[in-house]
Amino acid sequence: VKWRVMALERTYAMVKPDGVKRGLVGEVLRRLEHKGFKIVGMKLMQIPRATAEEHYGEHRGKPFFEGLVSFITSGPVVAMVVEGENAIAEWRKMMGATNPKDAAPGTLRGDFAATIDENIVHGSDAPETAEREIGIFFKPEELL
Ligand code: RTP
Ligand code: MG
Mind listing the UniProt keywords for this protein, alphabetically (predicted)? Predict the structure, then answer.
């Protein structure tokens, strides 16, 4: 018998400014809830520039960094902490590939995004990233 250990994880999920502007907050929440994820933290916020630079720190120095920080601070986002079995990888699957041209139909980016620069949603890409990003956006007492 092969046992697969399921991990109850938390991930940082976010509806980016384009998703909020286009009225896709409800669609994103619908999909997360239908998938059985639990929302343990959620807020509408405009990300301060310094916070955006910290959040996307791994991309500092890349040609798209400035544009990325400008975009993510350009309007309100919905910041969330989502909990569930294998939540990190599962939410990435639901998001779809970074470039919407490669994102499968049925994924949020595949269904709604048009460009790599404005791709609706964010999700942590690894357990260490999730912990770091949750800490950037939420105080412990904001997680219920
Ligand atoms: P995110 O962090 O926003 O959830 O997206 P991701 O993991 O799928 O992609 P990542 O590699 O972390 O890149 C962050 C965001 O930067 C923009 N990007 N542009 N022009 C490019 O080659 C390029 N590569 C990345 C995208 O908007 C991506 O979501
Ligand atoms: Mg990323």
Answer: ATP-binding, Cytoplasm, Kinase, Magnesium, Metal-binding, Nucleotide metabolism, Nucleotide-binding, Phosphoprotein, Transferase
Atom of ligand 1 nearest to the CA of 123: 4
| Interface predicted TM-score (ipTM) | 0.96
Q: Is residue 3 one of the residues assigned to a domain?
A: no
Q: Is residue 1 part of a domain?
A: no
Predicted TM-score (pTM) of the model is 0.96
Measured between alpha carbons, how far is 76 from 58 in angstroms, rounded to an integer? 22
**Alpha-carbon gap, residue 55 to 47, rounded angstroms:** 10
Instruction: Evaluate whether 87 touches 134 at the Cβ level (below 8 Å).
Output: no
CA of 118 to the centre of ligand 1 (A): 9
Tell me how many domains the chain contains: 1
Provide the CATH number for the domain around residue 72: 3.30.70.141
Known catalytic residue: 59? no
